[in-house]
Amino acid sequence: MMDWYLDRSAHTFRYQQLIDRIQIGIQNGELLPGEKLPSERQLAQQLGIDRSTVNRAYSELAASNIVSQAVGQGTRVKKQPNADNHSNWLAYLRTQSDPLEPPFEPTDQASRLDLTTNILPPQLWPTLPPVKFPHYLPRDGSSNAVLGLSGLRHCILEATVSKQLNAKIDDTQILITSGIQQAFTLLVEGLLAPGDSVAIESPSSLNQLKIFQLLGIRIYRVPITQTGRLNLSQLAKLKRQHQIKLLFVMPNLQNPTGATMILEDRKALVKACRDLSLPIVEGDPFQPLSQSKIPTLFCLDPDNVIYASTLSLLMGTQTRIGWLFGPAHVMYQLGILRDKLGERIGMAQQLVAQEFLCSPAFKDQQNQLHQRLSAKKEQLLLKLSPLIKRDWISITSSQTGFFLWINLLHLPQLQPRDYVLFRKYGLLILPAPYFGSPTNGFRLSFVALETDQQFDDIESRMDKALKTLHQKFNKIQKNS
To answer: Which among 22, 27, 31 is positioned nearest to 58, based on CA atoms?
Structure first.
């Protein structure tokens, strides 16, 4: 079920708010194809609005071929819209361009600043050591073939796992994947069925939202604070109401906010989930870079947590290697599922990752990348300080990663189309609606920024965008 709400303070017609809410719900997987929407009378009573408002919203969505309306069947999310008996290939796409991403004209390409990337640019990639290839291949069905090369699994334990955790895990509990996205996909496909429900943080990573949407999983959001603390009472309520099967969280450098959960909150979360009989999937892609000293959730409760991480944020796309930690029998079965899907990880990639983890290049990359990212972050914070002093924005405190979370202050609740203003000034950002958040804000990635001019441009363009945004809403308030 979707969480139905309207913003009473927003300067937007309520029927348009309802249209936007339904479209975002479809995009995020809260409303599945074929799902029946509440009746006009029910929704009007629930939201405290006129039935005619709901009728207008439903009618416009039907005219746009987003929902279908039939006597006796109500209003439903369309499954496969088609027109004029021609094949509608767009209806077959499981992911489509988001309306929040209007394409730039070719003339804009050189001047725009892409602040959306979460991929390490080539200029920050490490130099990889030479690799010697063995004269054998793992035998089908062996642990080396299903779980991944034992040498790589051993190096992951030695290079990326804390001493506290090392005593609680062996390499039979590690499954090699091609990255954290494949890890999440395997978990969803292996542990869940279409229509099952999961809980995620709000805001939450765009990539996770798309995985759940593609596989037909219902998602329910649990708000987090600026320190990464989950609302545990809301989590318990969702578990009771919707039979939540898994909780997906990212305690270290949470995406998109960059928050890191403190140890006290981690212990409380682990205990709450244990009491609720709710397993946890812990994503930790920045761990090889940040080397956080705070125990992971998996370290605190390895029997109730499956842990996922990756080398991609340290190595770039040179080698797509990630891993899962969990019960040995579960990891083995997920490895078999991965192979059945034709996604076995190549030996060459595993050997490259193994040599990298066991060489001095690994520590060198950790130190050098951390220094360079810290310098970029401090430079960006300095450039944004005038906007902070003007009380237009605040920035969620975070450790050094790839991005910052920018909170927009003293504005009514923004609609998705309001963020297009930033793109008009050449700033490509990922706004809060991408991450399923009703708050005003956006993620700003600085990992690919290189020149002083780029940092200067961010300051000047954001100043203009925010000034225009405030003028727009001040004008609306004066006229209302």
So the answer is: 22
